Amino acid sequence: MSYEHDVYKVLTFSELADGDGQEGISLPDLMRIIPEYYRNSRVMKAIQSVDAAELGQLRFALDETLKQFFVDSATWGLDGWEKELGLSTDSASPPARRRELIRAKLRGTGTTTKRMLIEAAASFSGGEVEVIEYPEESRFEVKFVGVKGIPSNMAGFIRMLEDIKPAHLAYSFAYTYTTWGNLLSLHWSDAVSKTWSELRTYEGG
């Protein structure tokens, strides 16, 4: 292959990356795109090594910055999402739970309807719900059907619900638990190793 073709053709970063950088950082192999008579030069290898490290860091920084524009991949950018949506920031809370609240807030914008409550609830792990309305009593019931027992981020779910529901409406929760019939396939030796709480939320299998 001629030098001109080797140097001036278009190569993507991924084609040059050799993956020898720090965790999550790929370093481009810049020695591939210089004339062959430089490739045994210790000076040129040192220069290209420094340049590769800088380019790898730059690409990593760009990729990380791009991730912050999407809730599902944001990490250090979650603070900005929370500030924009008027949510309190709890840096000690796991990122997954913070994302749940952000997604729920985004889905809960506008006039509150039964559909909105269901879609906002779906932002939470195990948040598949049925909403049962009792208009004559000015209340509604949220029944969790996506997970047995009490969902893990219940505190966040309640904050979301308080934020989007009409102020005059009361609400209550209903949870789904395992029935005795679902436990018939469970051997006694397996049953005695489980707590009562684990049996109440046993999914089978």
Distance between the termini: 59 Å
Shape category: elongated
Beta strand count: 3
The strand line-up of the biggest sheet is 1-2-3
Spans of at least 5 consecutive residues with low confidence: 1-11
Mean pLDDT: 77
| Overall SS class | alpha+beta
H/E series: HHHHHHEEHEHH
Q: Main beta sheet: strand number and arrangement?
A: 3 strands, mixed
Portion of residues in beta strands equals: 5-15%
Number of helices: 9
Radius of gyration: 27 Å
- Percent helix: 40-55%
Please give a structural write-up.
This is YmfQ family protein. It comes from Paenibacillus oceani. It holds the Pfam family Phage_Mu_Gp48. The protein is an alpha+beta fold and 205 residues long. The protein has helices spanning 3-8, 13-16, 42-67, 78-85, 95-107, 114-121, 154-164, 188-191, 196-200; strands at 129-134, 139-148, 170-176. The protein starts with a helix and ends in a 5-residue tail after the last helix.
